[in-house]
Specification:
It contains 7 helices and 11 strands. With about 200 residues, the chain is an alpha+beta fold. The strands form 3 sheets. Strands 2, 4, 5, 6 and 8 form a 5-stranded antiparallel sheet that branches. A 4-stranded antiparallel sheet has the order 1-9-3-7. The chain has a two-stranded antiparallel ribbon with strand order 10-11.
């Protein structure tokens, strides 16, 4: 799996380098919600992806949203929207231009890796987010591990607690209680609001 993730990162970099001259900053919106009708490049930070109001797992940059549509598969169009979290930097590229560049530089393998990665996330992470039987702790656990994995990207723009609340919709009091108990148990170390370390988190809380 590590090799796969490394390949995904390389594919993101490859696509970003090719698309860079054609990227435009995402237009500002008061609501912070955007319909996915083009290709989006999350350069840094994180965004929440929604399908008809239900949140998927957070997408953490650098990454792309909308690679599926480059292959022309528009018949099964999902009603997707996304919300930028604090510190996120997002760009867009015209889908026709993106398709042309993918064809010109034969980047279909890179696109395939990104789609495969999204499918993996959907099956292994998103299920916990959208499953009504999933406990608050399981959602918090996923968020802690995601935040720690990407702490160099997220750490200066959003706190761990805010990240969890935004991603899961769990109340602030519940999130703070779970984090407090995990700190007492020595599972996580937080100093000056920074997540410094994460031990193997318990399966149940």
């Amino acid at each position: 799996m590590d090799n796969f993730q490394e390949q995904v990162k390389k594919c993101v970099i490859t696509l970003a380098d090719v698309f860079e001259p054609y990227l435009c900053p995402l237009p500002e919106s008061k609501s912070g919600m955007y319909t996915i009708d083009t290709l989006y490049y999350v350069k840094k930070g994180a965004v929440l992806v929604f399908n008809s109001g239900s949140s998927f797992s957070p997408l953490i940059g650098p990454d792309f949203i909308g690679t599926y549509f480059i292959l022309g598969q528009t018949a099964m169009r999902l009603n997707l929207e996304f919300k930028l979290l604090s510190g996120a930097e997002v760009y867009t590229i015209d889908i026709a231009q993106a398709k042309s560049l993918v064809s010109k530089y034969n980047l279909y393998e890179s696109i395939s890796y990104l789609i495969a990665n999204r499918l993996y996330e959907f099956c292994n992470i998103t299920e916990i987010y959208i499953n009504p039987d999933s406990s608050a702790y399981k959602k918090v656990k996923i968020c802690i591990n995601l935040f720690y994995e990407h702490k160099d990207i997220l750490g200066d723009s959003i706190s761990l607690s805010t990240f969890i609340i935004e991603c899961t919709g769990i109340s602030k009091s519940r999130v703070m209680f779970i984090l407090s108990e995990l700190r007492k148990g020595g599972y996580i170390t937080i100093e000056n609001g920074k997540l410094l370390s994460v031990a193997k988190l318990p399966n149940e809380f």
